[in-house]
Amino acid sequence: MKELNIIIQIPLESIQKENIHHSDGHCFICGNKLGNNSKFVQLLTNGNLINSDEDFEESQGFFPVGSECAKKLEYKVKFAF
What we know:
Layout: E1 9-11, E2 39-44, E3 48-50, E4 59-65, H1 67-73
């Protein structure tokens, strides 16, 4: 079965915990310390996460997420890479 390549965006504010201070070694979504199985999400300048690992002109880059947050993001669509 062939996968569809549909670009989907979700607002970061709808899934990110409040008062998260982003620092190295911590999850971009929940702020917990990252383990060995961390992945990355891509954030656009409009504040949305996008389900692609391709370069976008509006990208702010890739940010680390823990394995539990990565699992929550995969609603049959891959958001974490």
